[in-house]
Amino acid sequence: MWKRTRLSLAIGAAFGAGLTGIAVGAWAQQTPAPAQSLERVEVTGSAIKRIDAETSLPVQVITAQDIARTGVTTSEQLLRTITAIDPAGITVSANNAGLNTGGLSTASLRGLGSTRTLVLVNGRRIAPYGSVGESASIDVNSIPIQAIDRVEVLKEGASAVYGSDAIAGVINFILRREYTGASISAEYGGTISGGGGGKQWNIAGSYGFGSLDKDRFNVSVLATYQKTDAIYGADRGYARSGISVSPDPNSQINNDTSSGNTFPGNIASSTTGDTIGNPLQGNCGPFSVTSPFFSPTVCRYDPSPFVTLLPEAENWSIFGAGRFAITKDLEAFAEVSYTHRDIFTQIQPVPLSDQFALPTTNPLFAVPPFNGANTFLLRPTSPYYPAGYIAAQGFDPTEPVRYRAIENGNRQTRDEVEVPRVALGLQGNGYGWDYNVTYLWTESKLTESVEGGFPQLTKVLPLLDSGLVNPFGPSTPDIQQALLASNFNGDTYVNKSSLQSISAGGSRELMQLSGGPLAIALGAEFRQEGY
Fold first, then answer.
1. pLDDT tens profile 203-249
2. Count of other CB atoms within 10 angstroms of residue 241
3. What share of the chain is helix, strand, coil (3-state, %, to 5)?
4. Whole-prediction pTM value?
5. Which residue, among 388, 500, 503, 374, has the nearest Cα to 436 in the 3D structure?
6. What is the Cα–Cα distance from 339 to 121, expressed in whole angstroms?
7. What is the gyration radius of the CA atoms in the chain, in angstroms?
8. Which helix (H) or strand (E) holds 63?
9. 69, 160 contact by CB (below 8 A)
10. Is 483 helix (H, G, I), strand (E, B) or coil?
11. Torsion angle, CA of 119/124/128/129, rounded to 10 degrees?
């Protein structure tokens, strides 16, 4: 659960009317638009404009007021409140811990997947996120929640209108269009669960001027900033350990997700491949533990405290919109936006042992002692060789070590996303037709970089084989520096997806029938996508 406080300074002013008020602790005042005749609108799932927003299709509308009442702070959190969203079929930004998602947050309607759920902004497409595993899905967190006027969710297929990526349905984020006045809002939130982490700061400011009715134009700008602190497994009691024992001795509800690749390292049998012991048995801390589900003669590594439950994230965006009434029946519009996201995730240090295979293309693949595996052999020539323990146990003199690269650090990745977007067009009505022409250009550039904890095998495995790395305790300072120097740091991939299109469409009523008007819509689109 979250607790939040909000401070808002709002200045609402009609264009040319000067300052009308200042409020602290309230949302911005917005100048009400003069009464107008009913306007035809295009409802998600149909290309025919109508006066009544009701439709035979199951469209759920979530207003800005509805969003404020939920207390959510991101579009990802908002979509989780929609019953048609299938939690099992989505990717959330926290999934990046250990996976190649690039911090992606997706939406999946009716369990059909994110590639069959179309996400739109103001009825127009967004460039796909472009991560390695999800090159066709849309990142919903690239849409700041502060900019949303309403969300329309079509809960059934609309491939006839939009294409095959709308088989599951459509989620249309409608952003604020005409705004006058100025507002600044600040919000702080934290979790009420003990353990810390998860604090969040939100700042949003907007400014708009001009009236379509009086001045024939309106220009508005919205800027947002959001910072979220990470939550790690160690911060929550339910996630602090992967080892749980039921108090009922007859219960089958027991769990152990610990690993035998530990620090201090376990000794394995070179003949059977089994973990057979640890010289520090019973004294595995501080980096490893003893598990009741395994022999007390070995140590186990519990990764749970180090895994990211909620990633550290920093997002900022700017949205600009302009509308100009060329005539009373023809309007030009422009939408320009830029979103930048920064997501940092972390998981436990990498395991290095004979249990993990080398790629066949690795230069060490056919080189002893590795022979196709990340082998760490414990030899009598090493200053850290536990001769007394080996002799007392009757083990072979040279045995592999199941090792956790604690001295290389936790594995840390950072994903930076840039999403520019431009839409230009004309819309109006004449000769009984509602028509529009739009040019759209948008990109999504994703850069993933490694900031620690990923040793290059061609550098770290020879170092382990040298016998100078202590598998049971701290190595010497110079070897610790050599281990850190074996890490790879830098960009792992840079992906860019792009989309540009020119579209035109029109609709009109043909005749009146007993159940209502018979209408027709015609349209054409040229779209070019790149990845």
1. 999 999 999 889 999 999 999 999 999 999 999 988 889 998 877 76
2. 19
3. 15, 40, 45
4. 0.80
5. 503
6. 13
7. 29
8. strand 59-63
9. no
10. helix
11. -70
